[in-house]
Amino acid sequence: MLGPVILAASRSDRIRRLVSAAPGTRQVVDRFIPGETVDEIVPVIRELTDRGLELTMDVVGEDITTPEQAATARDAYLELVDRLKQLELGTRAELSVKLSMFGQALPGGHALALANVRPVVEAAAATGTTVTLDAEDHTTLDSMFAIHEELRTDFPQTGCVIQAYLFRTEADARRLAESGSRVRLVKGAYKEPAEVAYQRKHEIDKAYVRILKVLMQGEGYPMIGSHDPRLISIAQELAHRAGRKLDEYEFQMLYGIRGDEHLRLAAEGHRMRVYTAYGTDWYGYFMRRLAEKPANLRFFARSMITKG
User: Fold this and answer.
1) Are 24 and 243 in contact (CB under 8 A)?
2) Which residue in the list 184, 271, 273, 288 is annotated as catalytic?
3) Among the options 58, 92, 134, 205, which is catalytic?
4) Which pLDDT tens digit goes with each residue over 8-43?
């Protein structure tokens, strides 16, 4: 299985240097990350929203080693919020944040991450949009959920992400569904041990459907994060059975993957949100995209050969 190998490589500084220097890397990175600055990403936001799509914006970067870097990440998101305010898109363009970027892994990281993310959530709310807290590896989740609960006291629209491959997630989903949260369900894109996570695709898919049933039958707002045609079809059926209207759930997919499906779902009246990342520290995000789908890795390999 290539996926776990690639995920392990995402933590290697040596492989980071090799991949960054490879001739074909930039071509593939651009497929998933369409810009490095706010100025470069604004035309992408306009293009996607003009086509009837919604967005969740992610400033890439996870390797934060100092409080100063965490503050810089916070300021990058505040700059993004300011530009979104000018575009007047409201919830059509929201934000996704990884708490690792805000200092979660540093000494005193829980309090530091909360202090850094709160002004971003406040600024987003003032602009008429909201923030979703991305899930990272399983060791960070208790902190993420605690910060999510704290933020929802003042900003109840704050969302969070849960990962189907973790054994704990069905219980997390029941708690979140009862509280009326905005919840994005994904399969999971980190290398997790067998003690805490399903390892086989069919097990993960079954867990995804079980958890999605919980969310659809609950009081919250489900966000279906998947490119899998079968799971998308199942999600539509579960929403129908639960009596949900088209504006009571949404689909989310990554920028650069299945763009035609984005447009098809939007044309059918579904809320279709594109997870759109930008920034210079792209390596970790990029490697997870390669790990998720063998076709992405093949595309990368062909690009290297072509450009070599």
Assistant:
1) no
2) 184
3) 134
4) 554 555 655 555 555 556 666 777 888 889 999 999
